[in-house]
Specification:
The protein is an alpha+beta fold. The protein contains five helices and twelve strands. It has a single domain, classed as Ribosomal Protein L22, Chain A, CATH 3.90.470.20. A hairpin with a 5-residue loop joins β9 and β10. It is globular. The two termini are 29 Å apart. This is 4'-phosphopantetheinyl transferase superfamily protein. Keywords: Transferase.
């Protein structure tokens, strides 16, 4: 893979495996596809850097002999999410990444808003037409989960501490642009909020998905070519093929 691909964010969606080990194998295969190495050379460490448990965000390891054959920077950041019958992984060299998928049914249950959203978000949801309410809730929730996975905090942080807004539709009319998420407030963030880049993707019927990437570049409405990130959504079939150029959804058009 050439240098111009190093700011891509690869999102791969596939049927969920029968076991956690199967999903980890899928993540390893996707990472091998990006790196151009044999999947057997990729191992995954899930050690939590806070408590030492096995539930930490995935860290990819490749032997130096295999890594030396690749032509991109290191590390390759990774994240994994499951919902219903689907699994999604996100991979990028651009910075720490988090991905989350969720079913619209799960965010429609009673009392979900009270435990997931702050007052500003609940107020905004009040004005969403009933037909769009589940999709809006899922967009907000997956954005929060993706951010907290990206930072490594997970649900140790109260999700109500984060305020996420949904921007107006983009002129392209693409489904994933219908309500682009933006991290509007997080008092405990510890980093400039505009360095957290968010984009939605479509993980399948009845599901919503968001990917978050923490970069060292502050986003502005004018995205410079050198700082621009692109999201490429792939399938399990794609990663069985040799990496190459594919149509991409630009984060510059979906991140505020």
């Amino acid at each position: 893979m050439n240098a111009e691909r190093t700011r891509d964010v690869f999102v791969v969606v596939a049927p969920r495996g029968a076991t956690d080990a199967a999903d980890r194998g899928f993540l390893a295969a996707a990472a091998a596809w990006v790196l151009g190495v044999d999947p057997r050379h990729v191992s995954i460490d899930r050690t939590c850097d806070r408590c030492g448990g096995s539930h930490g965000r995935p860290v990819l390891n490749v032997p130096p002999s295999a890594k030396g054959r690749t032509l991109h920077p290191w590390p390759l950041h990774a994240s994994l999410s499951r919902a219903a019958d689907a699994v999604a992984v996100a991979l990028t060299f651009a910075g720490p990444v988090g991905v989350d998928i969720e079913s619209l049914a799960a965010v429609s249950r009673a009392d979900f808003d009270r435990v997931a959203f702050g007052a500003a978000e609940q107020g905004a949801l009040h004005f969403v037409p009933p037909a769009d309410a589940a999709a809006a809730r899922a967009a907000l929730w997956t954005a929060k989960e993706a951010i907290l996975k990206c930072t490594g905090d997970g649900l140790r942080v109260d999700p109500r501490d984060l305020t996420v807004t949904l921007t107006a539709a983009a002129p392209t009319g693409a489904a994933t642009d219908a309500a682009a998420p933006h991290l509007a407030a997080w008092p405990g963030a510890g980093f400039p909020l505009d360095t957290m880049r968010l984009a939605r993707f479509d993980p399948g019927p009845g599901l919503a998905g968001t990917v978050a990437v923490h970069t060292d570049t502050v986003h502005t409405d004018t995205v410079h070519t050198g700082a621009q990130l692109t999201v490429l959504q792939l399938t399990a079939t794609d990663i069985r093929r040799r990496p190459g150029h594919r149509p991409a959804q630009s984060l510059g058009s979906t991140v505020r």
